[in-house]
Amino acid sequence: MLIPGRPLMMNSVTDEMNLLHHPPAHHLVMRDIGEEIDLEIGPGEDDPSFTSTPLVVSQEPTSSEEPEEQKALLLVSHTLSEDQDLTKLQQMKRKKKVVKKWREEWAETYKWAYVDMNEGTTRIFCSVCREYGRKHRRNPYGNEGSRNMQMSALEEHNNSLLHKEALRLQMASKDKSLPIVDRPIYVKSLMSKTAGSIVEAVFRRDPHDVEFIQSVQEVIHSLEPVLVKNSQYVHILERLLEPERMIVFRVPWVDDKGEPHVNRGFRVQFSQALGPCRGGLRFHPRMNLSIAKFLGFEQTLKNALSPYKLGGAGGGSDFDPKGKSDNEIMRFCQSFMDELYRYLGPDQDLPAEDMGVGPREMGYLFGQYRRLAGGHFQGNFTGPKIFWSGSSLRTEATGYGLVFFARLLLAEMNKELKGLRCAVSGSGKIAMHVIEKLLSCGAIPITVSDTKGYLLDEDGFDYVKFSVLRDIKAQQRSLRDYLKSYTRARYFEDAKPWNERCDIAFPCASQNEIEQTDALGLVNSGCRILIEGSNMPCRPQAIDILRKGKVLIAPAKSAGAGGVAVGELELNHEYNLMHWSAEDFESKLQEMIKQTYEKSIKEANSYGFPKDSPEALVHGGNISAFLNLAQAMIDQGCV
């Protein structure tokens, strides 16, 4: 016998049968584990209204002391009177009832679902997508049949794309150290159905790889006219978007106190169609497989845009080198290489530096690689101040190349870099070399930043001030210490430098550092050129704002080609950069930058993007890189 006002407990098969024959006259929504819900089941999957009906947000009763009938009425709509609700409920009741018992293993699923009325029928909606029924392929809780059928439908719902995203958000909310994604993935509008279907396929296959999907969307947006012109490239692009090899492994290590730790290592060898893989290793606590794939994809296109035959890769670990001793970093790097070394080699993969990986880390990594590989001394790691890399100039290549690219763009506008105010983010190797070269060109760099804020010197940095900055970074001190020497400067906590008055912006910190509000700040501050120093520094919404504001964007694929070029020269025995003067090195670097620029503009014009368009360089670079890769993939067959 059922007692009104108390939770319904299923203790036996007889109780369940009694409940089916004598259902209570009220509706319930969210209940605790062990309780049940009673749903009015509507027309079901065959109802044509499944795909076109509007959604109504339900509200739960706030007081447990209210009569049960009033609770049911409030669930239908809080705007209707009690008499109206009773009348409607009586009209909507169906003979068929489904009783489902809340179980421990179902609890997480139901937490992300809710019950609501839709055109006179009780439905179960997903809390993430606010959809029901066919939106999840099937009603996730089943409309009819045995409990086995309902469990099967529930299992299908648990495996669905939208439910997995809900669980990922839930797990992120439990662990504050994990990146919490508080916004849906931004989907660009595409003109062609073909391009849209490719993006949809990537999203279905890798729904949690936010950074990778963002990078793919940008490239496909550029390639739309290419796909329309030649449908053969559709299948090539589909193959290209799946990495050749993804390696995920455990990295155990012991700290100085003797306590064991474990991190996760990644290496994504994205494409070897043009040659052996080349790409950075990043050590950062937020590193994950999505970022490794995004870095590998960007590096693949960047290398394809260069004049050299190189594939692309990316990787690293969620290990944080900050605050670690040299011995701890050495032990971690050795453990990292214990697993990765078997996938490396001069003709297979060539790791390079990235965020959190400098000469010290590269030295430890190569030393362990050499020991494990049998003592072969032929080096295949690239980085500065390492005697097997062959060059002490490579560290400047990427930063100098960004400034040379900016100077090239200004020359096309009949302007020069001298006297222009430049906002720089980051304070790593690339950012510091950007500032150094800006000073030599007569520009006025005014900002640098770190993870806690940014430093502003309205008078601009000069060589003496730059020397102070370099010493601060070498000693791993805070940028705030700069204020002890120059009191007129200011440091802004938890802020970015994009609202400061500037002519050119050099984002050199990390991906997605420029949000919508930052883009508005850049446009309002008078910025006219943005040179990407880091990979994908702008969110898609920010890019839209910058383009509408007529800000010319130089993509990292083109502007950052300097590092790729010099890295290849290091490995070419016909060149010995140790015998080059600084002037020869810069001359060669400028020549490579110019070739990349001209190639991008040529392809942009070929596919209808005029030279003076703010997005010409982005689209032209993506198209040129893809065509090089596509031709190689066509020549090699379906492999």
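Next protein, fold it too.
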Amino acid sequence: MENNKRKMDSNAPTKACQYGSDCYRVNPLHFREYSHPHIETLLSKVASINQVVVPEQIKINKSVFEEQIRIVAKQFPHLADGVKHPAKQTKLDTGATSLEPSSSKQVSSQIKPSPVPPTDSKNAIESLFAERRAKMQSAKREAPTPVPVPEPNSNAASSVATADTGVSLQKSLPRDINAYFPVVAPRGQMAQKLAAAEPYNFFLTTITDSKPTHSEPLSVTFQELLDSSLGQLESSVQMNFMVDIGWLLAHYYFAGYENVPLLILYGDETPELRMVSKKKPNVTAVKVDIKTPFGVHHTKMGLYGYRDGSMRIVISTANLYEDDWHNRTQGLWISPRLPAVPEDADTAFGESVTDFRSNLLAYLDAYKLTQLQPWIARIRRTDFSDIKVCLVASVPGGHVNTPKGPLWGHARLGYLLTKYAAPIDDSCPLVAQSSSIGSLGPSPESWVLGEIMANFRKDSAPIGIRRMPGFRMIYPSYSNVRQSHDSLLGGGCLPYGRATHSKQEWLKTYLHQWFCRSRHRNKAMPHIKTYCRWSHRGLYWFLLTSANLSKSAWGVYNKTGRFEKPLRINSYEAGVLFLPKLLLDENFFPMEAGKKDPQFPMPYDVPIIPYAPEDTPFFMDYLTQ
């Protein structure tokens, strides 16, 4: 009878985690998808979670292992009650040396339950970093030559633990940055790299398992965004969907900005984000709530303010957690350094030719957050005249035209193309590429051709009779993902489901493979999102954005209404539009080297290759079967 009580729930996963006892994760979703026999064996032999003995010889950080035990214990009915009441839980014993206790009696004699102090700030802060630190400890590679980390500037960081901050990160993290991040760029060189990337300032993230990308001039790591050569950071804002606060704060720590004010706007809730402001007073984390259940805060943007009054904008496609900066293809646009306007300048001074500043202000104002007001004031007094790309953003709500044209979604893109794009031959297709695909409707005309193409096809040619351009979609096939650096797990950033596809199977005729041999990312699955049009003459325009091909991201027109039909958008998104007229004073971006202007750095190989008849899109279902 006792053995039956200790069986796992019938819905427990059966597919084993490929990392085995090296697994460092503490995400409950991971443990609902994959079995961890080394933990399940421990739990099956005890009558209470308090009796679990943590082996002395575990390969990962003990605090991580303890959290894993609590997560897996929820799959054991006889242990579930103890897990559901944290106040009744006790610390797991960490003094045992044997992997499996011989009996419950033996275990109970070794355990001395003691309550977990709820206000133990040292443990709380260390837990923010435990998962990332544990993975690096378990990584089976030779440690590179240690690079000493210089002492942070006294104005930026402090190594003294106080009652307010809890504990210095210097006491929680290893001194060697190479022991924490798999790819570390040379210090002090990012400003030079950015200058060499002009006029596009368009980068891809480095790929851990593709060494050529580690030294590619147009590849960056996150820590380079905090490089001192770009400016001495005074404060910053990180706006994103998913944020691993431990991973993010580790970057700030190694850059010497442990105590610099940081505002985080995020979409995906975690316990760590909820508590970080209590333990790190310089960090303010605000969850962006959206009224509709179909919307998310999907923008990926950074605002960096420097001590000399200047600032910088970064718009990317990457979430702020390790996996997105590991073996996935991501894109970033990094602005030039933007100086403060002279004190006696009028309010119009320093606006970009693309109205980037006023568009950014409108975007930030849409949040209606008091925490953003100092940044809105700062941006108003910043010179944006060196920015020559257009901001293309989405905010939730129903939107109609304004005196400045449509401000959001696919209508905004159409407005900008009409204003700035050279006339484009109708034989040039739109090439869309994203990491997820929404519900597009039962036919191409439902939304893609009916709304998206109606705006994405636009240019500055006089209105006349035109034919509909073709549509192409780059989305990784099953075979693309299977050969990725992480095998099928490489598809973890591609949440397109078989159920959705079954309602829009017409899409397969438009699908194309992911190929990126030219930039050493053929095996790095794309989380980047791009839209563009080109011909043999060159690239007419290119959009880098957080917005996947979905109605929630781009908007859909209301079908009813006596007057103007508003564009209904569910999510926050942000991207930048590159236009040759504004950047080069030309009609095309060169797509080949050796031209008068620099070649545009395409993130995939051209020409693109369609699916073979036997190909299927990669479905997230493959990871849950």
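About the second fold: Confidence is low (pLDDT under 50) at residues 1-5, 83-133, 139-171.
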